[in-house]
Amino acid sequence: MLDEGGLLKKVNLHDYLRKIIQIDGVSGYEDNVAAFISETFSPYVDSTRTDNLGNLILYKRGSKKDAPSILFAAHMDEIGLIVTKIEDNGFLRFTSLGGFDVRTLPGQEVTVYGQKPVNGIIGFKPSYLDLDEEKGQSVEMKNLFIDTGFPREQVEKNIRIGSIAAIKRGFLPLLNNRCAGKAFDDRAGIAVLWQCARELVRIEHEAHLYFVATVQEEVGTRGAIVSTYGISPDLGIAVDVCHGDFPGAMEHEVSPLGEGAVVTVGPNIHPLMAKRLFETAEEYNLPCQRDVSPGPTGTDARAIQISLEGIPTALVSVPLRYMHTSVELIAPEDVKIAGRLLAYFAAGLNRSFLEELSCL
Amino acid sequence: MIELIKKLCESFGPSGRENTVRSLIIEELKKNGVDFTIDTLGNLIVTKESKESQDAKKILIAAHMDEIGLMVTFIDEDGFLRFTNIGGLLKNTLPGRKVVFENGTVGIIGQEKIKNTKELVLDKLYIDIGAQSHEEAKSKVKIGDMAVFLAPFSREGNRVMAKSLDNRIGCAVVLEALKKLLSFSLPNTVYFVFTVQEEVGLRGARPVAYRLKPDFGLAIDVTRVGDTPEPEFNTNVALGKGPTVKIKDSSVICHPQVTNLMIKVAENKNIPYQPEVLERGGTDAGAIHLVREGIPSGALSIPCRYIHTPAEMVDLDDVKNSVSFLSELLKVSW
């Protein structure tokens, strides 16, 4: 799938991000993303398997047999759409897989996956035609539709109820080395794991590492629930995105772009896991921000923590602006820093850290 | 089968108090000489082992026995009862309805004065069991007692109307399929499970799937339709056009292995079916597919109008086709 063929080492992080966000993989339909991840991780891991729900599990053996095991989870699914009804005239009604900001849907281009993929746009009634009582009302998904340009007969030959649609959007390079596009939530997290795996080529680690590209996070962290059970790790870290800074944001709600990885603290997070992450960042001079989450986080960390008999869990995030839109914007250097942080954290794991965790 | 549906629908079985419904189903099983077990939470399990192969796949078929209901939270000094919901009660369908408790006590849901319908919340409603004093009320009903709608079963042509067709119709479909398959040797081991507490969060299906460790899960439940005037949701699903193959609801994205097999069987056997994407609502497959390392799951739904009201409606052709569909599905190797 990589056009460079065997030249993986020459793929830089920017290229990796550019490629991975343009592969469609909405919740429940992650196969193409999984294939890309499997291929791009293969030089850095010892084995690869896929579980019953489609989670991709990449295993990298540590140097010590009885060393702890750790699961790094980043979800590979993106939010998407699914057809609920075909109107008499061929327009497609839909609902979402995951939580779209409905205000950003009208006017988007989409790819509808029928038997063959076809282009579509999300149509709506122009506001000029609104009746008086409709003026200023918020957009509702049930009033939107996908227009493929086809008449009903042609649509029905190709598309059925349950066909999925993904937002169609390219990779947009911006000033200051930043970039925007769809699905950085959470392909940026996958890129963090990829960066981590690459760093670990030259860093020795005792611990056994499971990089898991999870499925169905956007519909309820479903992939993490079953993959954590299947792997049964000693420790877990979810890697996801968090809200970046923008005009009008409350400072305490956002983490600025370009200022490094974000480590969350709160009840979902084992305090000594977070502490060790901050210490590691300081030791290796990696910029690191602190975020607070008062309840279960909206990430795979919520599922990992309460799996099996309970698993000490942490959350490392990349700041991202305009979450759940097609113009999610990140700073790739934050991805690189987060990847390094995880690599050094993994390298420092041993049996005695595990014992420390239990005497809190 | 009509008599069975009527009996199942008219019986009392809110979430957590499914014993009457379970007894009815057990009676049917005994009539047919079928063995069963009951788990800790009350799920009723019938196992039909495959004799064809050592490594036969195990399939869990789940139909929930429970229905939505009301639970008494307070008895006031005049003998009126305040209540909370068990499952997704629709508050605008409540005022003026009769309800019945397990001991047969009947009440009417009354409504306090309100200025507009927006003020209609459960706090403004009460149950009047005709008691003339606090003491009289307490002698009939305790805090924590549950009630369900009191609503007769009716049939008009090909359509039946009753309370709790969600999901007694699913139970009836599973029972009928089970009876049809009794004399067959099946390529898969099948667990026919009548689950508890679906309406309060798919609680029965989870532990039963954990216990049985199936390779696949299939829920049999009802689904919403879009064939009524100005329906709430955008859907093509209609009464009388066949059972549905669920693709997605709020609780599960069905596994393609299961949905593809269902479509193949329906098409090979000429059983009418409708693909279903349900925007709001879940079913036991939602719990089953997340058990242990993940269990590929799907659902076969019976189209149903007015779900979670005291008068739901299904089409008898859809019911018959659901029985055939489920039976044919279980005759093929998964």
The chain-level structural class of chain B is alpha+beta
Task: Report the CATH architecture of the largest domain in chain B.
Answer: 3-Layer(aba) Sandwich
Percent of residues in β-strands of chain A: 25-35%
Number of spatially distinct domains of chain B: 2
The CATH architecture name of the largest domain in chain A reads 3-Layer(aba) Sandwich
Stretches of chain B where pLDDT is under 50 for at least 5 consecutive residues are none
Q: If strands are numbered along the chain, what order do they take across the biggest sheet of chain B? A: 1-2-12-3-13-16-14-15
Q: Provide mean pLDDT of chain A, rounded.
A: 94
- Counting copies of identical and different chains, the oligomeric state is heterodimer
Strands in their spatial order, largest beta sheet of chain A: 1-2-12-3-13-16-14-15
Description:
The complex is a heterodimer of chains A (360) and B (334). Chain A is α+β, with helices and mostly antiparallel strands. In chain A, 51% of the residues are buried. The N terminus of chain A is likely disordered. Helices cover 26% and strands 25% of the residues of chain A. Chain A folds into two domains: 248 residues, 3-Layer(aba) Sandwich (Aminopeptidase), CATH 3.40.630.10; 88 residues, Elongation Factor Tu (Ef-tu), domain 3, CATH 2.40.30. Chain A is built from nine helices and 17 strands. Chain B is α+β, with helices and mostly antiparallel strands and 334 residues long. Chain B has two domains: 235 residues, Aminopeptidase; 80 residues, Peptidase M42, domain 2 (Elongation Factor Tu (Ef-tu), domain 3), CATH 2.40.30. Chain B contains eight helices and 17 strands. In chain B, strands 1-2-12-3-13-16-14-15 form an eight-stranded mixed sheet, with helices on both faces. In chain B, a hairpin with a 2-residue loop joins strand 10 and strand 11. The longest helix of chain B has 17 residues. Classes of the chains: A alpha+beta (360), B alpha+beta (334). At the A-B interface, strand 4, strand 5 and helix 5 of A face strand 15 of B.
